[in-house]
Structure prediction request, 732 residues.
Amino acid sequence: MDAIHGKKSIPPATRWWIRLTIAGCVLVLSSCRLLPESQHRRPPTLPAGACSDHSCIQPLSTEGISPKVATKDGAAGGLGLPVPRTGTWASEYRAIHLGDPLPADQQVLPAAHQEMTSTSPASAAPSQGEWRIESAPLIPREGGLVYPYQPPGARKPWPSDEYLVDGGDNVPQVRMAPDGVISGVNVGDTVACYSTLAGRQVVEPANSVFIYSPRFGAVRQVVGFRSEEQLEFLASTVNTTGLAQSHEHLGPLSSKQHYQLQERATERRLNQLQTQEGDGALSAAFGPRGFHDGFLPHENLTVVKTGTFDTGEFALLTAAAQAAQAWSHAAVLQVFIDRKAAVALPGVTRVDVIYGLDEPPTFPKLRIIKLASRGHAAPGETVAFTIRFDNVGTEIIGNVTIVDNLSPRLEYLDGSAECSLPHQFNTQSGEAGSTILRWELTQPLPPNQGGIIRFQCKVR
Amino acid sequence: MGVPSKKRKVSLTRAKDPVVWLAFFAGLAGWTLTVGAPSACFAQQPSVHYFHQGNLQPGTVGATRLQGGGPVVGYFQPVQIRAPSGVSISVAEGGTFGEPAPAPLTVGLLIGPVYRFRITDIPFFPGKEVYPTVEIIDRIYPPLGLEWQYPVVIELTLEDLRLALQGFFVTRVVYLEDPQRALPIATENTGQNWFEAPPGTDPLTIADQLGRPVAIVRLGGRVPATFPVPDEQFLYGCPPVMRSPAQAAETKAPPEGPQVPTKQASMPRRVF
Prediction:
């Protein structure tokens, strides 16, 4: 071949070096990360119900919450409270209503939980799944923010360092382990964690609340002119400033998907409509466990009073807060038969429509909304926050925990926390001088039930 | 048909092909970058090169900021100057200083020009006056209607005034704190957070690392060369000042003096 084409063959030794060089270049190019840091920190936007590998595999950050691992016997967990028994309420509920065998060491649920679903037949086991995280649209910290007001002549992005942002779920996102330990709560995060009947731990972030509160600092330098004097400066200085340490525990880079096939995937018909908001219910704000006063002026919204979302109040809600993803789902027309959603079965040869009763698949969903009493505050002024949470799903949820990591510039006023449902409340110091507030509901939250949380903070 | 060559040992010392040496050094460089210096492969922080320093001539940083364009041109940024109790502050306008007003003084200043103030009635220094300059280099974006409620706060301590009277040159770079890195301490009773820049460092650079610089204040022992009407160079052309709605009704009009054009470029030099 060489004689025909006249080419000079490459010696084997040179061929070997060429391959080695190519391999080395490939190693260099594949190991270097050339993307700017801002792209790494861009929060992922997930569609509802999706759980990609990137969102499920979040680095387990030990910042904010104590990294102590909770034991199964209810010892102190990450926040110093007894770890909730994640499987207790679910197994009891399933034993009573779904016919599953009741564990020997479990107690029977109160009668109030029995009458709620007495008419529902034993459905198939809920779908199994791993982490399910639905993130609300996050506001990049380094860039601008979306605000209804536009300064004249100013282009986006607008500076975000003039606002106190509290709410949402920043990267790394919050994770709730099966034993109840919550991690990844960063400064400014407000999330609600709960367990489903299937044993899944779901984290639902609240919307972000923006409060205009600029604060200024100063750097001073004094320069002196000395005449007839000579200063002898040191040849070297010792910088006692230490590097800021951070503990970051990266999770495994590989993950295992636990998706299982739906048993009845064909049951979802095009004409089956289902609202994800629920009717809501009047909360127990005025009951024996209610607040000492009525609703505050900034709570004069239907969604806060009754839990029912009114589209006419959408503009009011978005004027001072960033709406969560759950708000964007509009209520649709439904046909109810015996208090259950019905499905239209149109026939090709008939003029009328026959409504059949078809039990839709159950799904857990918690809606959490955060509001502030004012949109701007000077240092020293007090801001009242209200968190409204509702079970807008179709199944009961348990171990409902609401965690709020306040901004370092917000000082929690002791004794101002209130909740309309039986709960356990505690506070903990977080990173950067922030305060972490935690409410744990002592009872599972049935569908179409909700509650209100209030607390006050002083702007530093 | 070519005959397959036999494998033979490769000896670098005896290799004469330049391609072999080139491939060897390229592989060595790749190994060094991947194993020997892993930090070089990670995304490096974008290095910031500061074009200006805090000890530049007043007006340089502001002029550069105006050249960048944006919503800063022609905008009167509300500024509140705070001083120890009993101190009187007046701002240069119309070629001379206006009536002194008790601290704090809230006025609207343009971004870029340099404003001269006069501080009088300093505690423990009767009859002494200090003439600081304020250079606004950036603005903030408050909600509509709240501009005067959230001004840029410039705080002058008694120590600053004392050092200026003793002949020292004091530079204060006021910056907007980053809420995520702000100190978790209350400031409504303790005053504005500030700290001393180490010697040999640039206060403007430090302020930029901590937040967003918005103003540069300079105090020294310089006094106007002419009295009672200071020269225009001392007043930096006397740029326009906007009074707050509350002070516009309370303060009197400044006394009539030499008419000084607002544009410094077309201002003739005068000798009083």
Notes: Residues 106 and 246 of chain B are 9 Å apart (CA to CA). Helices of chain B lie at 18-36, 60-67, 158-165, 203-210, 245-250.
